[in-house]
Amino acid sequence: MKKQNSNNREPQKPSLVSPIIASIISAIIPGLGQIFARAYKRGLTILPSVLSIGGLLTWRIYQEGRRYTDIKTIISKAFYLSPILKIVTILFVILYIWVIIDAYLTAKKSNKGSRSYGSGLLFFVLVVFFLLGWQIGDIDIGNLFSQADEALPTMGRLLWPWEKAIERPEDVLTMTADIISPCQEKEVPVAEASATDPYIVITPTCGNPTETDGTPGTEFHLVGGNFKTDQEIEIWWKDPNGNEFRQRQQGEYVKVMPKEDDGSFELDIIMPYRLVTSTVEDENRIWEIQARQLQSVGQAQLSDEFKLAVEKMIETIIIGMMATLFGVILAIPICFLAARNLMSQNVITRAIYYVVRTILNVIRSIEPLIWAIIATIVVGLGPFAGIIALTIHSIAALAKLYSEAIESIDPGPIEAIQATGANWLQTIVYAVIPQIVPPFVSFTIYRWDINIRMSTVIGFVGGGGIGFLLQQWIRLLDYRAAGIAVWFIAITVMVLDYVSAEIRERYK
Asked: What pLDDT shows up at residue 90?
């Protein structure tokens, strides 16, 4: 007996048309000539590939030159702005000609009883797709390396954020003095200097802020004493609305170093601009000037960001665990309805099988991120929305995996049980369940691992967990705090991967 040639992937049947006709048909509809030559797989691969390449190429040329209406101008501008489109166009023309020639050769070889041809055409299609993807993805390797230096500081804060994980409580001394604006007949009394305690005295005690047109405000003379001599003093203001802000002059924050002998200082400052609204006309608006000095630094302790990251990481693990638990409970009864070998007994069970399979495919095709957005609309922001989103997706994914495990079991025990007259439920209990426990455990652990990782993502849309916290820190450009969250996510995933591997090993 002759061994069949492994290169002849398609049956050797004569072409339905002559080679010339096949090439003409492929010139009109690429790949159709190969189909008429009975190279069905080849033709059905070429047809959508060439059509999709042509459509994508046309769309990208239009996008690049969409500001113009003339076709020639659109094409020339597109080639000028994106030279890679010119290369893709040339390759597409070569591909089109190659498809026509390939149809002729395929029909000719088919008529001779041979179907041995290389895969160079299909490889060429992949090359054209790759170049189109490069252009659509706007890939710029040069830009990646040229801007790498700018990203290094941020990456450093993300990769080593532990300075943010430790903090030392600071004791700040704040001395204040009041100022009335605008000046009234009743003035604020001038504070008296103390012989031992820190103090500040400001003169005059009333004035006007800097105007919006740049007109300088009232100049004040600030005197202080008995401060620590080894720490700078920062000057702050507090407006009548209670808002605090640092004093700036000539673009620099105002600060002063006390004298070494007695801790005193003198400083001239101009009242800054501040938009202050008042509900009472001609009301005396009390401003407050502050002199702040760091007095002491306490013992090192875990920062609030670190504690919050731990709390939200625990919440993330719980979200994944609860979603997996609910998903398993609801997926187990559904998976038996989605197993072909159990639901092929009659027309009714086959109909149930197709309906269940269709529903599972629809649910599974929608990403958990979308389910999380929907869940937040229903139940609001928080971990409950994340649990709902992951549970819905877990039901569909686990039911599919479980059903495929059921379909791959040994049919012998099923036939033996059914031969005894057992009903559908008894068949499942005594013939199916004993065979599916190991794969079910493996799939469940794997899904828990996926849910833990996904729960960090759905937090970005309000699904709770550490993802929500990570999003806030990134938006605030607090990359060290974000780095703490990233480290916790990475460590948790690695630990869970090890635990899940150990559990799967025990159930092999």
From this structure: 92
The more confidently predicted of residues 341 and 204 is: 204
Q: Where are the beta strands (DSSP E) in 310-438?
A: none
d(CA 323, CA 320) in angstroms, rounded, equals 5
- Closest listed residue to residue 98, CA positions, set 111, 117, 84: 117
The answer to whether the CB of 188 falls within 8 A of the CB of 220 is no
Q: Where do the structural domains in the chain lie, given as residue ranges?
A: 19-139, 170-297, 304-506
Q: Where are the beta strands (DSSP E) in 57-191?
A: 166-167, 170-181
- Residue 274 Ramachandran class (φ > 0 left, ψ -120 to 50 alpha, else beta): beta
Looking at residue 164, what DSSP letter applies? T
How far is the CA of 369 from the CAs of 193, 327, 372, 450, 457, in angstroms?
A: 63, 17, 5, 13, 7
Q: Could you tell me which of 41, 29, 13, 30 has the C-alpha nearest to residue 107?
A: 13
What are the CA-CA distances from residue 168 to residues 108, 145, 302, 332 (Å)?
83, 38, 9, 52
Cα–chain center distance at 187 = 59
Query: How much is the pLDDT for 197?
Result: 87
Q: How confident is the model at residue 12 (pLDDT cuts 50, 70, 90)?
A: low
Are 451 and 394 in contact by the 8 Å Cβ rule? The answer is: yes
pTM of the model: 0.64
Burial of 469 (0-12, 13-18, 19+ CB in 10 A): buried
CA–CA separation, 175 and 235 (whole Å): 10
Q: Is the pLDDT of residue 6 over 50?
A: no
- The strand pairing partners of 177, in sequence order, are 289
Q: CA-CA distance, 401 to 444, in Å (whole number)?
A: 9
Residue range 10-27: average pLDDT? 81
Cα 337 to Cα 357: distance, rounded to the nearest angstrom = 8
Backbone angles phi, psi at 99, to 5 degrees: -60, -40
Domain 304-506: CATH class, spelled out:
mainly alpha
Q: What is the pLDDT of residue 323?
A: 92
